Amino acid sequence: YGYASSYSRHTVHYNRDERDAQTNFELPTVPDDEIASVRLGNWRSGTECERIEYTLHIDAEVNPVLVLKYAVVMENPDGHGTYEQPRFTLHILKNGKSVENHCVEADFTADGVDTTADKSWHRWNPHTSAASADIVWKEWTTVGVDLSEYDGEDLVVQLTSYDCSQSGHFGYVYF
Asked: What CA–CA distance (Å, rounded) separates 130 from 146?
């Protein structure tokens, strides 16, 4: 449906001047110094879930470091338990199981984020919309992971976005 449609769930964004409307146009849809991003999910509710996986063959002599940038946007509904909230997860898997380095995992729910932290890399931004629940969003975050210990092996990078389980609130991620 194109990047501007709320029906699009796996969308490439390439306009470096574009800003995300759900964040009051504060979040760029493409990070600085990059040419594009992919958006997983949308701003429609409906208990949708989107996942993308990349298989990487690790060659420690060529490129032992994975650099991943991501930004997250989620509604934060009142009256939902943590397990019902919109969510984003990031995992690096080996043979279907998370690698043991916990620095390469992310698991955020809308009600579990801190909008008051003073460190910009940790802080989530609040935005109240008249049309919906409160929205929390995370600025572009860069994660660098040394994968040299997995030289010669195949790893899977897995990103997943979830709407709330009650079908009324959205969650999506750019990477």
From this structure: 43
Pairing state of beta strands 154-162 and 49-57?
antiparallel
Percent of the chain that is helix, strand, coil (3-state, to 5): 10, 45, 50
What are 53's two structure tokens?
A: 């996986």
Contact 171, 74 (CB under 8 A): yes
Report residues of the chain scoring pLDDT below 70.
101-103, 113-123, 128-133
**What whole-number distance in Å separates Cα of residue 21 and Cα of residue 169?**
16
- Hey, what are 76's tokens? 């934060």
Q: pLDDT (tens digit, 9 = 90+) per residue, 78-87?
A: 888 888 899 9
Contact between 92 and 99 under an 8 Å Cβ cutoff? The reply is yes
- Compute and round to an integer the Cα radius of gyration of the chain: 16
Q: Which two tokens stand for residue 10?
A: 């796996």
